Amino acid sequence: MKKILTLISALSLPFFLLAQSGSGFWQTINKSQTSGQVQGMQGLLPKNYQAFSLDFSAMTSHLRQAPMEFTAAATSHPLEVSLPMPDGRLEKFAVWESPIMEPGLAAAFPSIKTFGGRSIDHPAITMRLDYSPQGFHAGIYSPEGIAIVAPFEPLQDGRYISFWTNDAVASAPAPFPLCNVDGSHAGNPDPAHAGDEITANGGDRDLLTTLNLQTYRLAIATTAEFSTDNGGTTASVLAAVTNIVNNINLIYERDNAIRLILINNTTETFFFPPNNADPYMNANPDAMMNANPDVMNNAYGLSGYDVGHVFGTNAGGVAQLFSVCSENKARGASCSFSPYVGPVFFLIPTHEFGHQFSAVHTFNDCDGFQNDDPLTGYEPGSGSTIMSYSNAAGCTQNWVQGQNDPYFHVNSLERIQNFSRNGTTGGSCDQVVAVGNNTPEAEIPIDGGFNIPISTPFQLTGAATDPDGDSMTYVWEQYDVGPPSTLGMPTGTAPLFRSVPPTTSLTRVFPKMETIVNNIANDKAERLPTTTRVLTFRFTARDNKAPAGGWGWDVIQFMSTATAGPFVVTQPTASGITWEVGSYQEVTWNVANTTNNLVNCHWVNIKLSTDGGYTYPVTLLAQTPNDGSAFVVVPNEISTTARVRVEAADNIFFDISNNNFSIVPPAAPGFALQTDIEYGTACSPAGFEVNLETTALLNFSDAITFSASDLPPGATATFTPNPVTPGGTTTLVLDMGNVTVDGDYPITISAEAGGLPVQQRTVDINVVSSDFSALAAVSPANGNSGTTLLPSFQWTNLPNAQFYDIEIATSPNFGNTVVADSFGLTTNTYLPDVTLEENKLYFWHIRCYNECGAGDFSDAFTFYTVSQSCMLFNSTNAPITISGAGLPYITSKISVPAVAGISDVNVKNIVGDHNAFGDIAFRLKSPSGDSVVLMNGAPCGSPFAFNLGFDDQSPLTSIPCPPPTTGANYKPSQQLSAFNGINGQGEWTFVLAVINTIGSGGTFNSWSLELCGTASPINPTLINNDTICAEPGGLGLIVQDQLRVEDTDNTAPQLTFTIVTNTKEGFLTRGGTQLGVGDQFTMQDIYALQIKYNNTNSSATYDYFTFAVTDGTGGLLGTPRVNIKMDPTCVVGTDEQSQDIGFSIYPNPAGDVLNIAFGQAATGSAKVGLLNVEGRQLQATEVNLAVGTIQLNTAGLPAGIYLVQVTTAQGVVSKKVILE
Fold first, then answer.
1. How many other C-beta atoms can be found within 10 angstroms of the C-beta atom of residue 864?
2. Hey, which residues does 344 pair with through a beta bridge?
3. Domain 1135-1219 = CATH 2.60.40.3080
4. I need a surface site. Which of 433, 573, 882, 1102 has the fewest CB within 10 A?
5. What is the pLDDT at residue 184?
6. Which residues pair with 473 in a beta bridge?
């Protein structure tokens, strides 16, 4: 049963030290005082180490003050303990007691204690230590690796050693049997492989965001040989086992948030000669593993432990995959061998426990041995991480290094986490300690999918955040698998780059910088790609937080391409070169086709190193063209170890100069001149600027005067300021307003001062026009009616446009009314892949863009699709029997009266049955004798009934088996549009032909012919379009004298205006409701004086709107502009203002004569009109208001309601009148 214990993490909060002591327990001693051997290392002495003496009694007494982990005291007052490092310094740690024995075992052996801690000054460094009668031991995990502190023998001398584990290396690979993984796993779809597949933009990172510590009850057995080598007593063997497990936990806690706890009675399986019989065949890991389950189950019972292992000597190791918590939980064995002996032995069971927790081998090839895994061989050669084969005897050709580095490859991390956190597998027997560590989030801030040149260095940089603010370390690891390959000679997609231990740097250079600086071309473990291939890398961030370390990863995938590279710096690269400060120097490089469409690198940065090529803090030139040459001004960076780096500005590859060169002070007074760019794009008519920086050399102070020549035609140049004192800056401003010709212009900037030679700098300017005002529609033409349902769009081809965007919509608002679009078109044409609706108004607009940016979308253009009328004709001479003999040929005819201008032909309701539907064909023949094949057989060989049709516009292309019986339409084998445009009068013939004698015949029952013709619409006509007058900040009434549209076959209510471009300085209303783009009104609304313009900007003098008019029957008028002027003299008339004009109508109702009487105050002239209710003007006359009364002859007009409209300088007034 899994238990969750909620405890306080001693590492999650700031702490205050319990005691400020511990450093005095250690004293550095001379290595000459270290005669003898390191405890358990069988005479092996690390190649590099530091020796110390320890006051063991004082140290243990001090450690007894340490608070217990997960307590408040551990959080607030941990113990300070200093530990010796291999470089001779003492590292201070905050320490707490951290037991790894169950209480019963700890009580039985109180002299054995274990502790955990982290560095006070370097939080990324963690440690575990223990003491026992066998001495003091510590494992210190830092970004440099694991440091071991262990005693020399004899113990009573108090001499200790501190060394890195990777310095405990045999002089040659040790001849030990290789690790034999038990359990088939090649291709095993275990949960840990679920995220192995990735894309260029990243993989599936379904990782935990909060980690707790998982503890497992561990049972350890020892062979008699192992027990003898470790003191020969129960206490001494337990002390050795405790130290080994403590160091294993150092790694597993940090990488996997897992701790192994020795069970109470684990000493029952310690075997000693000669009294208790040893059931194991020492030095034979397979036999030891096979024997171990029975030994442990007999001793503890299957439920008495969670994972078991046996330790022996002189062999290697083996373990069964996925065995933790299972009935095979004891199937693991580890045997020591040089150099994995004594305090370094823990690295062997660390590897084997990895198998038991589901991790498999991560190396690509071990000289042909079969223990590599084709699914997880991410490391070249023998590999170097925990689950690899470093130092293995069988890997002499592929040996990456002499010892496994003490960290897990990201694939191992992921597999162990998925397995151990799965409640049905490795997470079914653990006990959880809820420490609540929030895991880091790793991110690669660039997208994948790009290409790099072959044989060219590159670098990758990640980013990471940790919610808890923990100190993180980072590792970049290649994540490609491929055929087993000799180290340094990868084939296919085999890995090129070894894993390197985590560091505090977010960046990894490929290959490492030392290799590049020293011009080493044969680093077998880091090979640059030489072929076109995929490159995949994972970036992992660790928070190094004991006891439950967390991590996160991101992934990127890109390509190397043999079409480009190697990209190489060619100058300065020779030895003996000297640059003078302030001089103008050329840097050259081999572009190597890196500007091609794959690598697509058009810009580079040039940087300077003064430390021999390791760092490049000085930018000499940014964003300069990748053309192989650039001039730089030498900065005041005196050095004898200078190097130059040329790097892609928008990619990850680079190269550096091969040798150091010198930078020396200037020889004479003068000035240096540097432009901020060597190349730029000027987007006319906008201006263009070049910044210039000067530097005084040897206190030169004369003023510098600037000038510019070779300007683009029409451009003018101004320097601000001019002249400049050395050390100052100036800006060249180019006025491009009159530049009309695009092109490249190398302008020359000259600077002169104090009689010195004139200095000149060249800046190449690419002039590109950003004026797209000439963009216009070609087809469909604006306002076109009768447009086909599959139109081709064309517009003006602008020479300064690189790309075009187009949108087609049912509203001038576009947005969610867009029915087709395309972006990034390189030609001025577009054929949409959708069929438009008939008899419908559409809007389209376009925009273009180039390197200067995108222009605005054009005003909307309009078109109206065709309006069709269709007639359906049915067959009458059916049913017809289809004979089963021979190849019968059946025809059925339909007689059609005159139908001219056919625009669409469809065949429908083909109904019948046949014994072999797949062996019949359909054809349609027109009255002129032309024919179209509708179907020529189908993939059906059984008897079937059918009911189907054929239509060019159908989305269905394949007739299924069995055939439809629903009347569904399909695309014909040949286009029925071949009949478009013909006169349809006459006999149309449907032909059914049997094309194979198989089958017993059938019946042809019916068919129908649909013929459609296109109507020729009559477009509305614009009668009046005069300027609307509006008061500033007030209203403008739109009347028929100013805006009027007529149509010979439609009435005023049917003439619909759609606003295409809205007003800018106000808004339109209909009956008081505000209108916007896409809103509509009718001609009847104008007649009824319902349309007004409301000015909202009283300082504006002009406004406008555009519209389209449809008549509902296919006619279109589009898109006239209505101009609006703001004028204080404008007076807007309404029928409520009739008293200002003062007229009356009588009689009302009227008969044959209508009288209109004007008041005495009325003066001037007026236009009097009589309109019907649709707004159509029936009569109009000009009158002098002084006459008083006029008469209109209304005889012969139909009875009904009419409008009398009087227009004067004061406005427009309308009144209703009834005629009887």
1. 27
2. none
3. yes
4. 1102
5. 41
6. 542
- Where does the pLDDT of residue 691 fall: very low under 50, low under 70, confident under 90, or very high at 90 and above? very high
CA atoms within 13 A on the CB side of 1076: 2
- R_g of the chain, CA atoms, integer Å: 45
The domain 1021-1126 belongs to what CATH superfamily? Uncharacterised protein PF12988, DUF3872 (2.60.40.2410)
pLDDT digits (tens, 9 = 90+) for 438-467: 999 999 999 999 999 999 999 999 999 999
User: Is the separation of the CB atoms in 897 and 879 below 8 Å?
Assistant: no
Inter-residue contact 235 to 227 (CB < 8 Å): no
Cα–Cα distance for residue pair 537/543, rounded to 1 Å: 20
Give the distance between the most distant pair of CA atoms in the chain.
146
Distance CA(320)–CA(330), nearest Å, equals 9
Query: What DSSP assignment string belongs to 872-917?
Result: EEE--S--EEE-SSS--EEEEEEEE----SEEEEEEEEEEEEETTG
Torsional class of 1098: left (φ above 0), alpha (ψ -120 to 50), beta (otherwise): alpha
pTM tops 0.70: yes
Q: Would you mind telling me the total number of residues written for the chain in this entry? A: 1220
| pLDDT mean across residues, the chain | 90
Task: Assess whether pLDDT exceeds 70 at residue 1162.
Answer: no
Neighbours of 1020 (CB within 10 A): 27
671-769 CATH fold: Immunoglobulin-like (2.60.40)
Q: How far apart are CA 86 and CA 699, in angstroms?
A: 51
SS (H, E, C) 762-800: EEEEEEEECCCCCCCEEECCCCEEEECCCCCEEECCCCC
- Tell me which architecture the domain covering 868-1014 has in CATH: Sandwich (2.60)
Beta bridge partners of 1058: 1080, 1108
Q: What is the CATH superfamily name and number for domain 193-420?
A: Collagenase (Catalytic Domain) (3.40.390.10)
**Please, what CATH class does the domain formed by 437-560 belong to?**
mainly beta
Report which residue type is found at 732: L
CA gap 1166, 1164 in Å, rounded: 7
What confidence tens digit (pLDDT) does each residue in 908-943 have?
Answer: 999 999 888 888 899 999 998 999 999 988 877 777
* Same fold? 193-420, 671-769: no
CATH of domain 568-667: 2.60.40
Helix, coil or strand: residue 546 = coil
Please tell me the distance from the alpha carbon of residue 136 to that of residue 242, in angstroms, as a whole number: 12
